Amino acid sequence: MAKKIVVDPITRIEGHLRIEAQIENGKIVDAWSSSTMYRGVERILQNRDPRDAWYFTQRFCGVCTTVHSLASIRAVENALNIKIPYNAEMIRNIIMGIQNVQDHMIHFYHLHALDWVDVVSALEADPAKTAALQQSISDWKFSSADYFAGVQKKISAFVATGKLGPFTNGYWGHPAMKLPAEANLMAVAHYLEALQVQKEIIKIHAILGSKNPHPQTFLVGGMAIPIDPNSQNALNADKIAQIIQYVNLAKEFVEQVYIPDILAVAPFYLDWAAIGTGHKNYLSYGEFPDDNRGYPNGFWLPAGVIENGDLSNVKPVDQQKITEYVTHSWYEYDGGDGVGKHPWEGQTNDKYTGPNPPYEFLDTDNKYSWVKSPRYDDKPMEVGPLSRMLIAYATGHKEVKTTIDYVLGQLNAGPEVLFSTLGRTAARAVETLITINKMSSWIDNLVANIKTGDYSIHNNEKWDPETWPASAKGYGWHEAPRGALGHWIVIDNKNIKNYQAVVPTTWNAGPRDPQGVRGQYEESLIGTPIADPERPLEILRTMHSFDPCLACAVHLYDAKGNLKSKAKIL
Amino acid sequence: MSAFNELLATHGVSRRDFLKYCSTIGAMLALPSTMIPKIAEAIEQDNRPPVIWLEFQDCAGDSEGLLRASRPGVAELVLDHISLDYHETIMAAAGHQAEASKNATVEKYKGQYICIVEGSIPTGAQGAYCTIGGHSAEDILKKVGGDAAVVIAVGSCSAFGGLPAAYPNPTGAKAVRDLLPNKTVINLPGCPMNVDNLTGTIVHYLTFGSAPAMDRFNRPKFAYGKRIHDNCERRSHFDAGQYVENWGDYGHQQGWCLYKMGCKGPETFHNCPTLRWNEGLSWPVMAGHGCAGCSEPGFWDTMMPMYRRLPNVPGFGVEASALNIGTAIVGASAAIFATHGAVTVARNWKNVASAKADLREEIKEHSDDVE
Q: Looking at the complex, does the CB of residue A443 fall below 8 Å from at least one CB of chain B?
């Protein structure tokens, strides 16, 4: 018999996500993904100074806290045809690189791990056996029986207070939890260690950009951190040495903890290499300009499109093929719900037609989300680390191919296992590893360029709006931790006329399109086994494998600047 | 060895480290050293208060800020000092189990728990702009915030409405204080809040059982009592008339004053220059970018455009006339920005101009209070 369940809130994500799922014979047969929060930031952006836009869009998301700044300044630079200095390009790469590494680390240990790790089971572990396990997987320094006994004691003391705080009501003892007690204790120790490591390594943002979250350093035309090896108020050898120190710390943790953990845990969950697949369409815009031609040339990670899992045919990306639908989203279009609009021509008037809160179920036959449905060449796409790694793998990218082949070899599996929940989680780890190893080359490039006497960090030519054309439009792309991110801007008379963001979670979390084709979250849940509908841990596993980030997925843009709607309540 | 000392030992913390930590907190709150034993005593008792952290129209920037906590660190905070019973971004439970945790705390500890709010609260569309578990943000806030011992609004969105409430405020976004007028609400604005100010506020509350002294915007004076401009490490350059004129120029490399690049430090009250961010490593001006004024109410409208310099800053050019220097060196660019900005404001924000003026007036009166 069919049963409809609701998981709201989906926790351990950024933003507000709700999943409704139809369950039959212990499996999901249909699913609906809904975002339940809306702010209207693009509307707020209208008529403001385009040079300020990065500061506003940065607040789309405080987790991936650099990505919308970068997409925004790139969009303005594209519209005004501004080339930034090489130093600024490398500083941006370093900021983006450590953002991806730190964000993936937090995701795995603090947002995703509790789907696979049973904290309560760790209390029963033998610390000596845990130490043996740790020592068998890497040379990590915290590996003694005493150390694990200490962690266990800390957790026991905590549990003894009877107040479990954030661990209350977790899915402890769930039949889908498969790790032995020792692996659980090791993972709990790494959860606590990673809390410490993430706040250290992100200090690179503070050195280069004043603070994190929300570094305050981005400029249309470059960056705001001056360079002068002989000044204590600028980027100098001392600050570069500090950055290298944090890169080394991150590298040590990724190589000795994160990657070995993935390889140690995955064998217990290999069934998840065949669950959570979805449409098998993958999109990446390409990232990290690696040579002195600058953005958008010479990407270290390639752009491309894969359709239907065909790794033998990676197609180039054409931005004209991007459209968004609102058939099942709480907006209305001139021309009706059946048309898709390109971001430059698009419009969004919010029009809420869902049930009045408090409600039990959404009206999933009609509109049911604040997220729109983006399509590429009219097809739904998955974006994120898996898409980036697949496209790089399929095009023969050396580091990616070597690393993925190594991981697949360890798991004794072929590349088809990557189209899955486990594949997404593994691809994110692989990307973390190759990115942290790449960081030193960007630092080297920066240092080599400073050595030539080039201290330039900003192209001032078009800073003054008086130098701008009467109107201009552009787009800026970025491969954010969660995938392909694009901002589109229309500038008119020195002000923002239109602003549109099509963000990673919009691609992944969007509802159905006019043809009824599901979004990627929805499709990926089909066929997922649910052991206990009251405790749908399996839904969290697949949702978290995407690393949802909802606040930025919900946006509003209106070509005419007129918000028509008074929300209509049914 | 007391049970508490044993607990410290299991965490690798000596008694001496612990007392040092208490003195740091004491110094931060500007308390006399005689208060340190009292702080230690409050922390020693295992009476971790339940905390419910609500997220509404937020970006999770303040939650991420919490993860950067260092005094104490987030693991110590969550394991030893508070019982974080509900926080969507980090809690293990999801769906109705998550909601059950929250409701259990509200019932069991009515009037005793701390409610922390991140993000503004939309009042339009009958609550449909933000729902959690099918309930509107406004209903959740009134229920959970209404029964709390104290409410702490972290970040500028929950403290003042923030970005969602910026013109034209498409969703009718409001601040916590607007919706809980009879409640003690401690505002910790900033974009995001500085987590050291949050841990300082919590320790103050646990130690004294009351909110710290606050200004007219309900901001604790220990964190928002001084103007950025007055504590700025570049103040001497302002007084000497040494200004950055272009990004990357000699003055920028030498750490001169960012006033002409739009710095809002002269109108902003926050402890950034002294406390700094990420364990005291840096803050915007130190890293070469001006202050955006993010801890002031309505800064998204009153402080923007970001790169337009503030008009009529008191004490402007004590040692040299910046105006003359400006004319001599740049002339064009700063003046053009000023005009451009002024035109933008006049054309687009006519209908909020008076509200904005009132707000600026209030901020000014606040400045006068402090002088």
A: no
Q: pTM higher than 0.95 for the full model?
A: no
B69 contacts in chain A (CB < 8 Å): 199
Q: Token pair of B274, please?
A: 């002294």
CA distances from B34 to B20, B42, B87, B200 (A): 14, 14, 35, 18
B324 to chain A, any CB pair closer than 8 A? The answer is no
For B8, residues 6+ apart whose C-beta sits below 8 A from its C-beta are: B14, B15, B17, B18
pLDDT in tens, A467-487: 999 999 999 999 999 999 999
Residue B91 three-state SS: coil
Measure the CA–CA gap between A561 and B3, rounded to whole angstroms.
Answer: 63
Kindly report, as residue ranges, where domains of CATH 4.10.480.10 are found in chain B. Answer: 228-370
- Please, is B43 exposed, middle or buried when counting C-beta atoms within 10 Å of its C-beta (0-12, 13-18, 19+)? buried
pLDDT confidence tier of residue A42, bands split at 50, 70 and 90: confident
A444-461 CB burial, b ≥16 within 10 A, e <16? ebbeebbeeeebbbbbbe
Cα(B240)–Cα(B263) distance, integer angstroms = 17
Please indicate whether residue A520 or residue B343 has the higher confidence score (pLDDT): A520
Nearest chain A CA: its distance from B4 CA (Å): 11
A153 in Cβ contact with A122 (< 8 Å): no
Q: Are A549 and A61 a contacting pair, CB within 8 Å?
A: yes
Q: Do B93 and B126 touch, CB atoms closer than 8 A?
A: no
**Residue type at B261 in one-letter notation:** M
Residues of B in contact with A457 (CB under 8 A): 247-248
Of B100, B278, B306, the CB nearest to A55: B306
CATH class of B48-223: alpha beta
Tokens of B340: 């451009």
Q: How many CB atoms lie within 10 A of CB B158?
A: 33
Contact criterion met (CB < 8 Å) for B94 and A9 = yes
| Antiparallel, parallel or unpaired: β A299-306 and A282-289 | antiparallel
- What pLDDT, on a 0 to 100 scale, did the predictor assign at position B7? 58
Interface of B with A in 213-232 (CB under 8 A): none
- Residues of A whose CB is below 8 A from B332: 464
- Position B360 scores a pLDDT of 67
Q: How far is CA A439 from the centre of its chain?
A: 19
Architecture of domain B228-370: Irregular (4.10)
Check CB contact under 8 Å for A9 and B74.
no
Q: Do A212 and B306 touch (CB under 8 A)?
A: no
Q: Is A153 part of the contact surface with chain B (CB cutoff 8 Å)?
A: yes
Subunit contact A211:B126, Cβ cutoff 8 A: no
- Is B70 near chain A, with CB under 8 Å? yes
What pLDDT score was predicted for residue B5? 64
Residue intervals in chain B for CATH 3.40.50.700: 48-223
Q: Which residues of A touch B84 (CB under 8 A)?
A: 165-166
Q: Which residues of A touch B68 (CB under 8 A)?
A: 199, 202, 212-213
Could you tell me the domains of chain A? 3-114+178-553 (1.10.645.10)
* Mean pLDDT value of segment A139-168: 93
Question: Residue range A528-552: average pLDDT?
Answer: 94
* Optimal mutation site among B109, B126, B237, B253, interface A, most CBs of chain A within 10 A: B253
> Are A188 and A122 within 8 A, CB to CB?
yes
- Are A346 and A559 within 8 A, CB to CB? yes
Strands (DSSP E) found in A167-246: 218-219, 222-223
Structure confidence at residue B337 as a pLDDT band (50, 70, 90): very low
pLDDT above 80: residue B354: no
